[in-house]
């Protein structure tokens, strides 16, 4: 299926690896020119080169912390009129809510709620004027099924989801959709780190812990960044213009509810 977005311009945040990179690659394969972002310059530039070589699109890497005002300004300066924005950043740390002070909450809200909102604010009027826009927020399955030790993520991402639910119904009339893509467990460095920590605690090997975790998922495996990217590219396609304000859960069926 031709996604109908060849020649469009996208900003993909937090995209040197993992889910962000999966989205960047999938959009590039559809002929979308990219501004990609992450903090570590060497890794980001290597990813930009890999995408260019594989797809031939224009890729501009901007190595900044996207959760800062200055960082977001640099990203937007490199792509002042984006057609597509993929909002992403690292997730907040796990812990016990009794230990989180105001600073911990502000940091989580800044990264996982206000940063995507700032990108929406900066881009949505231009998109509506031009009659086309796609914004996909990478959030988490924790929006639908909260995880107790990820309270900072549950809270901040739910705030973003609530905000988007309202605005996505105002923009769609002008060709601009905003949706959430909710990852369950995906095979990225972040997930591998979780299983390394688990192995260090349990005394079992990393492989044993990782494989046991994968088997527990109804699909019998973890998701891949490539399949996550493909779903993202579809949400950004011309075919998805009637999908807005939705939260698409990709978790291999791990969420046990009917709705
Ligand atoms: P990952 O493999 O660790 O990749 C994270 C990417 O984000 C890297 O490119 C990293 O590069 C970049 N990044 C992190 N903080 C940034 C910042 N402040 N500014 C700019 N770039 C930043 O992680 P992932 O698994 O793809 O996770 C992506 C998001 O999905 C996270 O919010 C995570 O909580 C969420 N999620 C993931 C899963 C999963 O199973 N993988 C499940 C649920 C939710 P630098 O470090 O160089 O900046």
Give an overview of the whole structure:
The chain is an alpha/beta fold and 259 residues long. It has helices at residues 18-29, 41-55, 69-78, 102-130, 151-171, 189-202, 206-216, 225-235; strands spanning 9-12, 33-38, 59-63, 84-87, 133-138, 176-183, 247-250. It has two domains: 9-186 and 225-249, NAD(P)-binding Rossmann-like Domain (Rossmann fold), CATH 3.40.50; 187-222. Helix content is 47%, strand content 14%. Strands 3-2-1-4-5-6-7 form a seven-stranded parallel β-sheet, sandwiched between helices. Strand 2, helix 2 and strand 3 form a beta-alpha-beta unit. The protein is globular and about 55 Å long. Bound molecules: NADP nicotinamide-adenine-dinucleotide phosphate. The site of NADP nicotinamide-adenine-dinucleotide phosphate has 29 residues, from helix 1, strand 2 and helix 6.
What is this entry, summarized?
The chain contains 8 helices and 7 strands. Helices cover 47% and strands 14% of the residues.
């Amino acid at each position: 299926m031709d996604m109908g977005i060849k020649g469009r311009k996208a900003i993909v945040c937090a995209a040197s690896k993992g889910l962000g990179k999966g989205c960047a690659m999938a959009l590039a394969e559809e002929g979308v020119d990219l501004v990609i972002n992450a903090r570590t310059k060497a890794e980001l530039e290597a990813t930009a080169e890999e995408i260019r070589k594989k797809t031939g699109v224009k890729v501009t890497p901007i190595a900044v912390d996207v959760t800062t005002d200055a960082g977001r300004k640099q990203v937007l300066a490199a792509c002042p009129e984006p057609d597509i924005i993929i909002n992403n950043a690292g997730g907040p740390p796990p812990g016990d809510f009794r230990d989180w002070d105001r600073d911990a909450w502000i940091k989580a809200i800044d990264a996982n709620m206000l940063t995507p909102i700032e990108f929406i604010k900066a881009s949505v009027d231009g998109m509506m004027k031009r009659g086309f826009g796609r914004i996909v927020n990478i959030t988490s399955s924790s929006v639908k099924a909260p995880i107790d030790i990820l309270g900072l993520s549950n809270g901040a991402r739910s705030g973003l989801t609530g905000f988007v639910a309202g605005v996505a119904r105002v923009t769609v009339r002008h060709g601009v959709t905003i949706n959430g893509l909710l990852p369950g467990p995906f095979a990225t460095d972040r997930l591998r780190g979780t299983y390394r920590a688990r192995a260090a605690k349990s005394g079992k090997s990393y492989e044993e812990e990782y494989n046991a975790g994968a088997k527990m998922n109804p699909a019998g495996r973890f998701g891949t960044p490539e399949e996550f990217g493909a779903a993202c590219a579809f949400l950004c396609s011309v075919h998805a213009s009637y999908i807005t304000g939705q939260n698409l859960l990709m978790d291999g069926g791990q969420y046990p509810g009917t709705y």
